[in-house]
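Please, structure for the following, as C-alpha cells.
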Amino acid sequence: MKKIGNQSQFLLLIFIFLMLPFTGFTQSLQVDLSMSETNVYSGEQVSVKLAISGTSIGSINQPQPPEIDGLRWLRGSTSRGTNYVLKNNTPTITYTFGYLFIAQDPGSYTIPPFEVEIDGEKYQSNTLNFTVLDPATIDEEEAQRAPDIYVRLEPATESPVVGEQVIVDVVLYFKNGIEISSYQPTPGWKAEGFWKEELQYPQRAQATSTLVNGIRYQKARLIQYALFPTKSGELTLSPFELTLSVRQQRRSDPFGFGFGQERQKVQSIPVTINAQPLPALKNAAFIGAVGDFKITREVSPKKAMVGESIEITTKISGTGNIPLINKPEYEFPEALEKYNPQQNSTINRQNREVSGTKVFTDVLIARNEGTFTIPAAKLAYFDPSTDSYVIEEVPAIKITAERDPNSSVAEVRDLKLEIEPISGLAQWSNTTSRPLYQKGWVWLMLMLPLFITAGAYGYKKYSDRMRTDTAFARSRTASKKAEKTLSELNKSADIKQGYHLIEKALIQFITDKLNLPPAGLSHSDIIEQVETLGNAETTASLKQLLTKCETIAYAPNVNQESLQTDLEKTKQLIKELEKQV
C-alpha cells in the first residue's frame, strides 16, 4: 500500500508539472496605459504608450485614442512595436502603441480608458491623471523640468477698447544649446472677434538672452500682428502652432553637420483679451476710428457748370484701425444730386503699427444754377492714449453752379424758300411711291421717342437703385473694385504686397457680392459663405488662395512667376463666382 501511495503522489506531481506551461495561456490579457510625463508644459509634446500583454494574443486592431481634455493628438505620429519574452518556459507577447500629443490649456486632467478589441472581445486600460502647466509659472525648483522650447502669444495690452490696435507678438523661447534652423507657422490661425493685420517684420528673427523666473532662455520674436477688437467682452486668441527644425548641440557632432536635427511642433496657450465698450458720445458723429488721426474735407471744384460733377473728399490719416473706419455722412442740399461714393486706402504695416490714409469721395452734380452750402460737420474718433473722444469740425463748404453760356437755346430764324421759275420746256412724269405707313424710316422715327423714353426710365431707375440700395450697388460694382485692386499688382515688385492685394480683392469681391460686413470676418467665415453656393471646386480654389495669402511670408520658393500664376487664378475665380452669385 505504501508503494502504491508513493506512486500516486509521483504521478500527481508529473501531471502538475506538465500542466504548468498550459496555465500560462489561460492568463487574462493586461492592458496598461503610461505617459512619458505627468507634469507637462502647455505647448510641449508628450507621448502616451498603450501596452497589451498576454501569453496568447490573436488579431488586434490598432486602438484609436479617445478625446482627451488638455491634449491634442498629432495624427499620423502613431508608432507600433512588438516584444516576445520567454520566461520559465512561458512565452509572453507585448504589443505597444505610442501616441504623440501637444499639451493645451493649463489645468489638471484625466486620460480616460483606451478601448481595445482583441479577437472580438473589448478590453479597457487604466486611467491616468496629469497636469498641464503654464511655462510662465516656472520657478527655480522646476528648472530641470522646464520645457526646452515653448511659444507664447504676447499682446501689448489685454484690456483694449473696441477698435483699439493691439500689437500681438509670437515669441519663441528656447534654452541655450538648442539651435532653431527654421520655423513654419501652421496655416489657419484664427483671431475670432478681431480684425487681423499681419505686420511686416524681418525674415530672420534675432534671438536675445532673457531670464524667465530665474531660468536662462533665448527669446526670439518671430511674427507680429495688429489685432482690432470688433466687439466688446472676453475674446480668446486661439493657440498658435509652429513647426520647428530643431538641432541640439551634442558632443558627437562637434562640427555642426546637422546630426540630431528633428522637426518638432510647439503650441501656445490661449490668451484672453477683455475688450471694453466705447463710451457714449454726444453732439458728434463717430466714424469708427480708434487711434490718432487727422481729418480734412475738401471740395473740387468750388465753381462748376450745371451738370458738371463736384467731388467732396474726406481724408482721414493717422495710426490705428484704418481698415475699419466708416464713411462720414453729410447733409447735402436737395439741388445737388448725389451719386455713388468712392473710397480707397493706403495702409502701412511697418514699425509695429498700422498707419495710413483712408479717403472717401462723394460725387455731386448740380441740376440748377445757384450757390449752395454744405453745412459744417463734427466728426469724432476715439484716442486710447487719452481714453477720450477727439472731435474735429470740418468747416462748411460753398459751391457755385453756373450755366454754360455755350449751351443757350439757339434763336429761331425765318426760313426763306429760294424759289426761281423754271424756264424752258418741262417734262412731267408720274412716279409710283409707297404709302408712308409702308416705309421703315417712318416707323423708326415714330418708335425712337418710345425707345429713348424707356431707356431713360430704365437708367433713372437703375441710378436710383444704385443710390438707395446699398446691397445692389455693392454687388454691381464688386467686379470693378476687384479689378482695380488687382491692377495695383503691376505697380509693386513686393511679392508679399502682391498677395495682400489678391487677398484684399477676393474678400472685397465676396463681401460685396454676398452683402456681407466689409470688415471683421475671418477667412473661415468667407469660405463658409461661398460653400453655400454649392460649388465644391470653387470653394477649394478660394480656400487654397486665401491660405497661401495668409502664409505667404513663410512659403519657400515664391517668386514673381508664382505671383502672376496666382493672379490669373484669382481673376478666373472671380469670374466663376460672378456666374454663381
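DSSP finds seven helices and 30 strands in the chain. Residues 468-580 form a domain with the Four Helix Bundle (Hemerythrin (Met), subunit A) fold (CATH 1.20.120).
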